[in-house]
Amino acid sequence: MDHETNLTFLRQVHGSHKYLSLNLSRLKMAAVLRLLERLDYTERNRVFLDRKNPMDYLRDEEIFARYRFSRHTIFYITDLVSARLVHPTRRSVPLTPLLQVLVFLRFLATGDFHLLIGESINISKDTAGRCIRRVSEVIVSLAGQCIVFPKGDDARQRKAGFFAVAEIAFFLQMVCDENFIITHCVAKCPGSVHDTRMFKESNLCRQFENEII
C-alpha cells in the first residue's frame, strides 16, 4: 500500500466509526501514528499572531534599555543587513528585516531564552533562534567591511585625538587594605606600558623582593 493510499484510508478511519472494523494489521503501528499526526497537522488551521514592532510604541530610553542601541543605530544596522534578510516569498507571513535585527539585538543585550525573546514580539522560540543565527551570520560576514584598524595618516590622527581628549595618559597603580583605604599609589609612565612593568619598577615590588613587607 503506497503512502497516498494509507493517507486516504486513515482519513476514512479518522472521519467515521464504521471503518474501525477494517483490518489494520497490514499497517505498522508506528506508520499509523505518523500518518494520524500528519492528518491532524494538515487539517489544523494555522494561526498567525499580530507581531509587535517595538519601534512603534517604545520610547527612546526604553529602546536603549532593551537593545543597548539607540533607535537611530538600530535603523542603521538594519539598513546594512536588510538586503540579505529579506525572505524570497511572502509565505507564512515572514519576519521583516527590522524585526529579525531586534530579536538578535535583544538576545545579545539580555541573554534571555529564545522563548522569552520570541514572546516579546509574538513569534515562536524556533523562529527566534533562526533569526539570531541568521542575523549573526550576516553581521559576521560584514566584519571585514566594518572593522578596520587605522593606518598611516588616519592612525596618527586617531592617536592625536585620544591625547587631545585625555590631554596626557598616565598609568595609575593603587593598593588598598581590607577596608579599602589606599596604602600605596604610583602615577607615572606616560603613554602605553604594560601593568607588569608598572609594578616591577615600583618601590612596592622592591619591598616584596627584599622581604621588607
Order of helices and strands: HHHHHHHHHHEEHH
Percent range for β-strand residues: 5-15%
Unreliable stretches (pLDDT < 50, length at least 5) are 16-24
Characterize the biggest β-sheet. Answer: 2 strands, antiparallel
What is the total tally of β strands?
2
Q: Mind telling me the C-alpha Rg?
A: 31 Å
* pLDDT averaged residue by residue: 78
Overall shape: it is elongated
Termini separation comes to: 90 Å
What structural category do the secondary elements indicate?
mainly alpha
Number of domains: 3
Q: What's the arrangement of strands in the largest beta sheet?
A: 1-2
Q: Explain this structure to me?
A:
The chain is mainly alpha-helical and 213 residues long. It has 3 domains: 3-43, no CATH class; 54-145, no CATH class; 152-209, no CATH class. Helices cover 56% and strands 6% of the residues. The protein contains 12 helices and 2 strands. The chain has helices spanning 3-15, 29-43, 54-57, 60-67, 71-81, 97-110, 114-119, 125-141, 143-146, 152-166, 195-200, 203-209, and strands at residues 171-176, 182-188. The chain has a two-stranded antiparallel ribbon. α5 (71-81) crosses α6 (97-110) and α6 (97-110) crosses α8. The radius of gyration is 31 Å and the shape is elongated. The chain starts with a helix and ends with a helix. The relative contact order is 0.06. Residues 16-24 have low confidence and may be disordered.
